[in-house]
Every structure is written in structure tokens, then in C-alpha cells.
Amino acid sequence: MSTFMNTDPKAFSGVWVFCEQRQGKMMPTTFELISEGRKLADELGVQLSGILLGDNVINPDDVFPTLQKVFNADGPALVNIMTDPNALAMPPKIEFSQMLGFAQTMYKLMMEGRSKEVLDTIDTNLKHWKEVF
Question: pLDDT tens digits for 51-77?
């Protein structure tokens, strides 16, 4: 399959929301993002699309052609993309503002009684600290 490499911003339109899931469950922040995305899409007069990464597209070269097909389709569509669960979850260079945002998010999760999600995040990221530091 050929690789889709369009760098023209006009080829992409609408508001796209990344829908995060963990262990098959939609993360609550996704619903907040969809709500805000809906407001923005309505304000701009464009389509709102949700992108959920999951388990059907396995080959990285197939991601862009598959997304192109889905976004050209009439009506709702869902694309499942297999991701590497061991992929580095942190950027190679971390800015203070990113650390602050991460800490605030973890604090909010803890205050909402979602400490298991915090522990899962820590466990996932600890595996990769040797690569970063």
C-alpha cells in the first residue's frame, strides 16, 4: 500500500479529537474533549471527528491511507489502530510547563479517586526512564 504524505493543510479539515482508551475503556477526559470539540466545530462550521486508537490497523504505512478513506466517507466511521504498548510515553526533552501539566493532571485524578489510573501511568512510564535519563 502506498504511503499518504500530504503536507498541504487544506487537505485536512474539521476538528479532530483524539479519543483515549485504556484496557478497552474510554477515558473520561475524552468526553470532555468531545464536548469542547463540538463547541469549536459548531463555531467554525466544520465537522467534528473522533479518532480512537485500537486494534485493526497494524502496519504503520497503512495509518494515513486508512484515515484518508475514513475522513472521505459519508457518515460516522471508526478506525482502530494497533499501537505499541511499550512505546515511550514521554517526549525526549521535557519542558517545565509539561511537567507542571502532568503533575496537575495526576493530582486531579487522585482527588477524583482514580488513583489506579495514576499508578498505571507511573508503571507504564517507569519502564522507559532508562531511555530518557
Answer: 775 446 667 777 777 777 777 777 666
